[in-house]
Predict the structure.
Amino acid sequence: MGNGIDNVTILIVLLIFFLFILTWGFNRISILRIRRKSEQAKDLSVIMKHTLNMSNNSVLRLSIRDHHAMNMHGNFLPPEGMSFEESLNYIHPEDRQIYIDFCKKLVGGEKTSQCLFRWDINKGQGLADWRYYRDLGIAEYANPTLETPTNIFCVLTDLTEQIEQDQKNTELTDRYRNIYEQPIVGLAFFGKDGYLMNVNEKTREIMKFQSERDPYYYDTPLFDVPLDHELISRKQTSDLFFCTKCVILERGVNFFAEMCLHPIYDEQGELLYLTLSIRDLTQERELFIKNRENEAFIRLQNEEIQQYENELQYLMEECDMRFWLADFIKNEIAFYKKLSEPDKVLSFKELGSFFINDDMIAQSLSQPELFF
């Protein structure tokens, strides 16, 4: 009987010891798992923080209940945070409704949303300094069954430099596009292999394109065009300026042109593109020829006039003749022996004194407008 009780006692002790070891093992494993997960979470937190520091982003937490936002990473807001209502004062007036709609989407059930707004980094102190921020919002729910989120986490990225550079690039592109499309000169861009890439409307007009991408021009390298193959070669490495008569029978092109070929190279000196400007000189040439003809005609007329003057001068000198010229505005008369300058100038009154007892002549000279 005593031996039986001892055996049961030993069995119970062994069972308790086994349960203790088993419980201790489970607890140890659980502790190791928790520690591993804690270390992983810590590592993940360090990685995320390091990533945020590298990306120069700011993270805010907006409490839906309190309408109050606090910094989670960075110093976008003051240390004490800021109310949602106050923050609207520092958002550009044109962007406030955009930000309000962004928050409404997240409160209304969307998990994530984003918007772009301008923020005054001076926060009302002095002149406003507006910077562009992209806000990526993430809704946090304390309980999945809740319809309204507890917090909204906002990841803010400063895009000011990028947007301003994009605006400058757009303005520059528009400016060059306006210049490119000016109807004064034709412009064409070619790849380094000589194939046409793009042309402006003036080029299409003077080169008589038959379609948007006329195969005759787009499928033929610049170096093989009959117009240019004697002037332009694949070894051309500098600007080339020339005037020529442009004749392309396949397109009915026939005009006098001024052309300029300009190669564009990269930093390593490798050819990237070729630009070609074309200006129709046909009308200018016709005007130039007409002007030359007019100049020749005027020169011939001047020579003939000079010859007539010389002959008249010779006749006047040989015959001792004079001619006179009356000026009714100044009321005077000039007598010439030579064509260049008068020998004598008399007023009509002085001239009348040379006529004796001739009232008719005297009256006509005193009031010439009534008699002449």
About this structure: The first strand starts at residue 58 and ends at 63. The radius of gyration is 49 Å. Residues 43 and 321 are 123 Å apart (CA to CA). The first helix runs from residue 2 to 55.
